[in-house]
Amino acid sequence: MNQANKPENEQPPCTRREVALLAQLQEIELVIEESNILHPENSERRLESLRLQRQELRRNLPSAWLERYDKLREQGAPVVKEASGICTGCRLRVPQGDLQRMRNGSAPWLCPNCSRFILLSE
Ligand SMILES: [Zn+2]
């Protein structure tokens, strides 16, 4: 029939899988960017393979998170890590309750302070 039964605020998952893919994407995009600026000697073939990897990663990510990623990227690194309960992006402590909800998949992996994607430690 239609999609009226779908909850309005339903969001695609954003847990370890998605954030790990976004972290890979960030790394590849940095290399591509650096190649343009610092290493123009990098072969076109290598750049081409990086661009393909980037395309592949983007294809595997929900568009809602990609949009957020692209917006954050304008201001710096969109994906950061958590270490000993601290976000390495904003250096603030992530509340234990938030960490727990993220780990059990009931909250998206976003830093509650700086709202970057946060990759939790194992
Ligand atoms: Zn943060």
Describe the structure.
With 122 residues, this protein is mainly alpha-helical. The protein has one domain (16-119): Orthogonal Bundle (Helix Hairpins). It has 4 helices and 3 strands. It has helices at residues 16-37, 44-59, 63-73, 96-103, and strands at 79-83, 86-87, 117-119. It has a 3-stranded mixed β-sheet. Strand 1 (79-83) and strand 2 form a beta hairpin. Helix 1 runs antiparallel to helix 2 (44-59). The longest helix is centred in the N-terminal third of the chain and has 22 residues, at 16-37. Zinc ion binds next to loops.
Taken together, the total number of domains comes to 1
Radius of gyration equals 17 Å
From the N-terminal CA to the C-terminal CA, the straight-line distance is: 43 Å
Give me the secondary-structure category. Answer: mainly alpha
Which strand-content bin applies to the residues? 5-15%
Task: State the major sheet.
Answer: 3 strands, mixed
List the helices and strands and how they pair.
Layout: H1 16-37, H2 44-59, H3 63-73, E1 79-83, E2 86-87, H4 96-103, E3 117-119
Parallel strand pairs: 1-3
Antiparallel strand pairs: 1-2
Helix pairs in contact: 1-2
Bound molecules: zinc ion.
Zinc ion is lined by residues 87, 89-90, 92, 111, 113-114, 116.
Keywords:
122 residues; mainly alpha; Helix Hairpins; 3-stranded mixed beta sheet; 4 helices; 3 strands; 47% helix; globular; binds zinc ion
What would a concise description of this structure say?
The chain has 122 residues and is mostly helical. 47% of the residues lie in helices and 8% in strands.
